[in-house]
Amino acid sequence: MLQDSHAFSGFSVDDISAAKAFYADTLGRRVTEENGMLTLHLAGDGGDRPTLVYPKPNHEPASFTILNFPVDDVEAAVDDLTARGVTFETYAGTPMETDAKGVFRQGGPLIAWFTDPAGNVLSVVER
């Protein structure tokens, strides 16, 4: 029944204008707006992968990573995004402890977490 459905994901934010500015201007992603909602256009195998960003007045940020952006060089991505005003999360004294820049180096791929204006958690992760 759903094998041919073009499924897509979505997440909520509390301020569509702030989300649009962040995803388009700060992160440099293509964003379109229609009916008070955003479509975040993400690159994917075989083309565009639309992700719905919708307003929710009682929005509560996800307590997990909602989007991961694979990059060739986490250090360069962190430096570039920091220069654009992004603040990376630092987790001290936890199993996911990061360094002062916000990069997790304790095994697995290098990864660094940050939030969008609505508090949703995103990451850059080294391929």
Automatic annotation (TrEMBL):
Known InterPro entries for this protein?
Glyas_Bleomycin-R_OHBP_Dase, Glyas_Fos-R_dOase_dom, VOC_core
Q: Which PROSITE patterns match?
A: VOC
Q: Which SUPFAM superfamilies match?
A: Glyoxalase/Bleomycin resistance protein/Dihydroxybiphenyl dioxygenase
- Show the Gene3D superfamilies listed in the entry: 2,3-Dihydroxybiphenyl 1,2-Dioxygenase, domain 1 (3.10.180.10)
User: What range(s) does the VOC domain occupy?
Assistant: 5-127
How is this protein named in the record?
VOC domain-containing protein
* Native source organism of the sequence: Terrabacter tumescens
